[in-house]
């Protein structure tokens, strides 16, 4: 999408609330089929979900070449606004306006596609040799190489707005009013958080699943923690209305509240550690966490703000004209979608380059030969 086509201000209506929720019910007897590949492939440094890993940190673990704004190319013309291209071993997986597409990482041409008439406008999930896609009231898994349907599963209440994620042991997906753990063959392990509420985002540590949820017209929200093994409800912190993904650090969970502050919650207990006001975030994008430097990069509707997670000090703030999508960090650079596509120095916040021709509408994906950006209805690459 060209920059002139993007509205000067992006408004998001406020939802609210969180009701009493039941604990998870476990189905220990569900059959489990082992995946075709070793478990560690689920946690490889691929962008297998919206924020790149189960913790949703948004930080790519490898370094990248220096991309430039002068070498851009439109490689696909039917992307769904707000989704992110997802990196697999050989292909890039894209949510198109009529279904799921696999593009070659090298040639950028279409390798295979699946026309789907009723699907969620969310990014796919790549885990091992599966690409998982939300289709109406179903979650479906396709073979990454040729698009063969491997399995699908009906969700009675319909899928919610949270992108699925995977750990080395299971796939976790959100329905409109509950979350489920699935085996890699699509069997359900457990279902939890059944109630009159909306699930907005999920993230995982090595032992817990963290969930942001709210109840429409109720005026509040909450962050929940469930055990990964059986969905037991460990803690709930109320009074935080976030429609984005939680972000998981070594000992804290970070949540950006709509129109409000960034919260740090104790990972084990949910106790509030601190909050930092960031002045009218007004979007659903989560912050990006760099664990190595203890820095939380927070998007707002005008700036990117870098916060020290230990001291709570604001290290820098840079006006990027607004960003309503997650920020990708790779090496010492930040890639910020918004009214422009902007590359920042992660240490200083200095603008390294800015593409005024395209506006990014979803988190970027990074490979060794390209920066992949959803520019509204076009997939654009920037080359080194």
TrEMBL record:
Biased composition (Polar residues): 22-33, 43-63
PROSITE patterns for the chain: PROKAR_LIPOPROTEIN
Region annotation (Disordered) ranges: 22-63
A Pfam family per the record: PQQ_2
Occurrences of domain Pyrrolo-quinoline quinone repeat (ranges): 178-297, 301-357
InterPro entries: PQQ_b-propeller_rpt, PQQ_rpt_dom, Quinoprotein_ADH-like_sf, WD40/YVTN_repeat-like_dom_sf
Domain of life (superkingdom): Archaea
SMART domains, A to Z: PQQ
PANTHER family, alphabetized: CELL SURFACE PROTEIN, OUTER MEMBRANE PROTEIN ASSEMBLY FACTOR BAMB
Descriptive protein name: Outer membrane protein assembly factor BamB, contains PQQ-like beta-propeller repeat
Provenance organism: Haloarchaeobius iranensis
Taxonomic lineage of the native organism: Archaea, Methanobacteriati, Methanobacteriota, Stenosarchaea group, Halobacteria
């Amino acid at each position: 999408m060209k920059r002139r086509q993007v509205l000067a201000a992006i408004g998001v209506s406020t939802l609210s609330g969180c009701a009493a929720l039941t604990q998870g019910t476990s189905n220990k007897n569900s059959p489990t089929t082992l995946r075709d590949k070793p478990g560690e492939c689920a946690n490889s440094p691929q962008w297998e979900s919206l924020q790149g890993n189960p913790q949703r940190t948004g930080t790519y673990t490898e370094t990248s070449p220096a991309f430039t704004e002068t070498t851009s190319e439109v490689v696909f013309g039917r992307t769904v606004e707000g989704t992110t291209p997802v990196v697999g071993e050989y292909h890039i997986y894209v949510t198109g306006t009529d279904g799921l597409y696999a593009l070659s990482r090298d040639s950028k041409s279409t390798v295979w596609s699946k026309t789907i008439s009723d699907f969620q406008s969310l990014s796919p999930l790549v885990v091992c040799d599966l690409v998982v896609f939300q289709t109406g009231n179903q979650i479906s898994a396709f073979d990454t190489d040729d698009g063969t349907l491997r399995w699908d599963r009906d969700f009675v209440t319909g899928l919610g707005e949270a992108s699925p994620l995977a750990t080395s042991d299971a796939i976790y997906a959100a329905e409109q009013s509950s979350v489920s753990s699935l085996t890699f063959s699509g069997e359900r392990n457990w279902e939890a958080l059944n109630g009159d509420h909306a699930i907005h985002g999920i993230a995982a540590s090595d032992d817990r699943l963290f969930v942001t949820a709210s109840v429409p017209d109720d005026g509040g929200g909450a962050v929940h923690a469930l055990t990964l093994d059986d969905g037991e409800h460990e803690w709930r912190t109320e009074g935080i209305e976030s429609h984005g993904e939680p972000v998981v650090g070594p000992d804290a969970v970070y949540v950006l509240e709509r129109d409000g502050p960034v919260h740090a919650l104790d990972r084990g207990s949910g106790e509030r550690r601190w909050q930092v006001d960031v002045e009218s975030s007004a979007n659903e994008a989560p912050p990006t966490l760099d664990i190595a430097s203890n820095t939380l990069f927070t998007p707002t509707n005008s700036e990117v703000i870098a916060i020290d997670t230990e001291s709570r000090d604001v290290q820098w703030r840079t006006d990027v004209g607004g960003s309503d999508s997650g920020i990708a960090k790779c090496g010492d650079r930040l890639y910020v979608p918004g009214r422009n596509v902007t590359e920042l120095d992660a240490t200083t916040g200095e603008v390294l380059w800015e593409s005024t021709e395209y506006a990014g509408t979803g988190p970027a994906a990074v490979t060794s030969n390209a920066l992949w950006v959803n520019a509204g209805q076009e997939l654009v690459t920037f080359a080194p």
